[in-house]
């Protein structure tokens, strides 16, 4: 069994020779005066890089080392880059373009160890998961346009995904907060003195969430956008209009709190009005190219 330390020693081949020798003894491949291939070995470098006899064993060693390194190790994290498609691909267009030249590999210019270093970037992108790793306004508008354009089929699903996307963009809400949101978490009021037209912002409140375990009141708000394609109030209005007027869901009874407080803001397709939107459906629709498939 390879330990974490031994796997790390294998991946980081530029460590001291004593650690490498100890590792080779551990796996039963200790050095001798003459290799089994008939050539005189050049220390561990012959076994790790040049000997044709040990090619398959080297691949096995590399796979074992990669599997045993935790996700916190820089080399292991570098080789796991899940593909993005659909809306996810559009939202990550900037980071994809920034890395179009590909990472610099450890084995470039070294002349040896290709099997071990072919997937290890020398300098991971420090802009990843920062403010630089985002999307532009035209890219966001293009995503919203696609959802509007395909709303003729699976109308409720496309409007639901549009609202989900707009709430995440403008209100900076987590996916779990949006799935748990109810229409009673929304309200509005008029801002006085804001010009010739009425100013009615959308206010969203929550007292629970992954990062709010103690019932703290959190509030977020958004105004109308002059561009109707990316307006959060416009998208929400069309979504609720379809649900309560064009769809089969009855209009809420606002005379009693018990009649409408538990109605979900974003509900699953075909599910009850108080049923939560599932994580898998949210992930599939936001990550699919044409809006995904119907159902939860």
Query: What is the class of the largest domain in the CATH system?
Result: Mainly Alpha
What is the fold-level CATH name, i.e. the topology of the largest domain? hpI Integrase, Chain A
Low-confidence stretches: 13-17, 30-34, 70-85, 93-118, 289-296
Strand coverage percent: under 5%
The helix/strand series, from N terminus to C terminus, equals: HHHHHHHHHHHEEEHHH
Report the end-to-end length measured between terminal Cα atoms. 42 Å
Assembly type: single chain
Q: Structurally, how many domains make up the residues?
A: 2
- Please provide the count of β strands: 3
Q: How are strands sequenced across the largest beta sheet?
A: 1-2-3
- Report the sheet with the most strands, covering strand number, pairing sense and barrel closure: 3 strands, antiparallel
User: Helical element count?
Assistant: 14
Q: Given the helix and strand composition, which structural class is it? A: mainly alpha
Helix content: 40-55%
Specify the overall morphology. elongated
Radius of gyration: 28 Å
Assign the CATH architecture of the largest domain: Orthogonal Bundle
């Amino acid at each position: 069994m390879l330990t974490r330390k031994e796997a790390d020693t294998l991946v980081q081949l530029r460590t001291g020779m004593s650690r490498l020798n100890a590792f080779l003894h551990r796996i039963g491949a200790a050095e001798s005066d003459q290799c089994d291939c008939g050539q005189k070995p050049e220390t561990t470098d012959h076994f790790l890089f040049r000997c044709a006899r040990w090619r398959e064993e080297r691949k096995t060693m590399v796979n074992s080392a990669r599997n045993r390194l935790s996700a916190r190790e820089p080399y292991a994290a570098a080789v796991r880059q899940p593909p993005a498609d659909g809306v996810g691909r559009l939202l990550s267009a900037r980071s994809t373009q920034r890395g179009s030249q590909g990472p610099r590999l450890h084995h470039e210019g070294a002349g040896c160890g290709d099997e071990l270093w072919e997937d290890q970037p020398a300098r991971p992108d420090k802009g990843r998961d920062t403010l630089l790793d985002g999307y532009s306004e035209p890219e966001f508008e293009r995503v919203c346009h696609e959802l509007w354009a395909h709303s003729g089929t699976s109308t409720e699903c496309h409007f639901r995904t549009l609202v989900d996307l707009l709430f995440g963009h403008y209100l900076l809400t987590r996916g779990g907060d949006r799935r748990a949101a109810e229409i009673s978490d929304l309200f509005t009021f008029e801002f006085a003195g804001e010009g010739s037209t009425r100013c009615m912002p959308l206010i969203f409140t929550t007292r629970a969430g992954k990062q709010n375990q103690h019932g703290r009141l959190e509030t977020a708000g958004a105004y109308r956008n002059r561009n109707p394609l990316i307006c959060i109030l416009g998208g929400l209005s069309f979504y609720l209009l379809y649900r309560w007027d064009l769809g089969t869901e009855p209009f809420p009874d606002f005379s009693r709190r018990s009649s409408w407080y538990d109605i979900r803001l974003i509900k699953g397709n075909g599910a009850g009005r108080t049923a939560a939107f599932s994580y898998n459906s949210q992930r599939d629709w936001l990550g699919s190219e044409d809006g995904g498939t119907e159902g939860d």
